[in-house]
Known about the structure:
mainly alpha
Amino acid sequence: MSSNAIGLFVGLLLGIAFAAGGFSGFLITLVLGILGVLAVRVIEGDVDISQYFQNMSNKKEQ
């Protein structure tokens, strides 16, 4: 099982535990699943978010 699949399942399980059904529960589960996949991709190094933190630190210095 790939890391992306594990991240997706963790996000989905957290969403199901947090939300108790209905359309809003579906949306929360979907968002948490996407965040789980994104977190795994950042940890594995597939997605580089360092540029966003560099921009924030440059704005604070000015």
